[in-house]
Amino acid sequence: MMEILHRKSWESNIQHPLVIAYYTINTPYEAEAEVLKISLESLGYSYVICAVANQGSWQKNTQYKSLFIERMLEDYSNRALLYIDVDAIMVQAPILLDNLDADIAAVHFNNSKELLSGTIFFGGTLASREVVSEWISINEKYPEILPDGRLAWDQRTLEMAIKSIEHCSFIELPQNYTWVTELTQKECPGLAPVILHARGAKKFKNLIDGKDGYAFD
Question: What is the tens place of the pLDDT at every residue in 165-185?
């Protein structure tokens, strides 16, 4: 079940993609949503932020991302969409995305093979919807572990989905469109964030999974 709790629209800025995000009820991500909302309003971006039920684990909550985006692509089929993790802050307007001609656009961390799914542009095209449909299927097939033994994080299953749709037009975004606290500032010193991601997973993953301490390094 999904409930839209925050919506704001500026029709004069229709050239901007519509920002979409979600958070799980009764988790610390509720407070993060308020911060994201303020940053979007300060820069004049329309947004839809939804509350969803806790799926039972951090892994399941993150894999819900594909289902959420599928719903948004259906509900706002006439708009380009910009998905942002709810623990992010829009620091500067991501102007490269205005009227961007692409099916999907995102960042690979420090030009590596690791796709980052905290900021994802969807062109609202048939190919973008095909990718999301395939993403859902891959998540269902590999809910925990990928065939190569890696954890089935949502960004990894999204990368698999993008590669499976040969006619998908993918554009690589600059590193500061998914600027990650501790990580990007270490690898790319001096780079100013456009969309800053606060690594909520590090702070909240173990809490949601009923464990102690921070997750990840």
Answer: 999 999 999 999 999 988 888
pTM of full prediction above 0.85: yes
Q: What is the CATH number of the domain that holds 70?
A: 3.90.550.10
CA pair distance 103, 131, nearest whole angstrom: 9
Residue 215 lies in a domain: no
In a domain, 216, yes or no: no
Residue 204 falls inside a structural domain: yes
Q: What is the DSSP string of the chain?
A: -EEEEEEE--GGGTTSPEEEEEEETTSTHHHHHHHHHHHHHHTT--EEEEEE---SSHHHHHHHHHHHHHHHHHHTTTS-EEEE-TTEEE-S--GGGTT---SEEEEEGGGSS-EEEEEEEE--SHHHHHHHHHHHHHHHH-SSB-TTSSB--HHHHHHHHHHH-TT--EEEPPGGGGEETTTHHHHSTTPPPSEEE--HHHHHHHHHTT--S----
Strand order, beta sheet including 2-8: 2-8, 47-52, 18-24, 81-84, 115-122, 104-108, 170-172
For residue 89, list its beta bridge partners. 196
Domains in the chain, number:
1
Question: Domain range holding 59?
Answer: 2-208
213 located within any domain: no
